[in-house]
Amino acid sequence: MTKEEIIKFMNENLTCYLATAENNQPRVRAMMAYRADEKGIIFSTGNTKDLYRQIKNNPLVEVCFFNAQSNTQVRVKGKAVIKEDIELKKEIVNNRPFLKPVVEKMGYDILIVFGVVDCVANVWTFETNLSPKEYINLS
């Protein structure tokens, strides 16, 4: 896959798995990315969540996007960076109505937006299972 095909794949498969570390222990959870482009992958979480504390303490993360129909997996490693962008927060809340009640009650400060930047991806399929890994810079 090319860089452009990987970015398209991520945007078509926004439900993914995000791995962090806490006290030298891996932590993984299903997430819904907001979008992906050459600048990185955008996510949101709450400021009371373990995820927020984990990326503040260790910003190195890995994200795995998967499509069951094609049995394609894209793993992306990068660095989580907090985005202090109120307009982006408003855009995310507007496009994800389930966040509106929380923001209305708690304010926009409850919402943490972060980007995974300096992304390097590798693609896995059954056909390439035994091939050497190829890493593709997405920046």
TrEMBL record:
Residues covered by the Pyridoxamine 5'-phosphate oxidase N-terminal domain: 3-93
Listed Pfam families: PNPOx_N
Database matches in InterPro entries: Pyridox_Oxase_N, Split_barrel_FMN-bd, Stress-Dev_Protein
SUPFAM superfamilies named among the record's database cross-references: FMN-binding split barrel
Source organism phylogeny: Bacteria, Pseudomonadati, Candidatus Omnitrophota, Candidatus Ghiorseimicrobium
Name listed for the protein in its UniProt record: Pyridoxamine 5'-phosphate oxidase
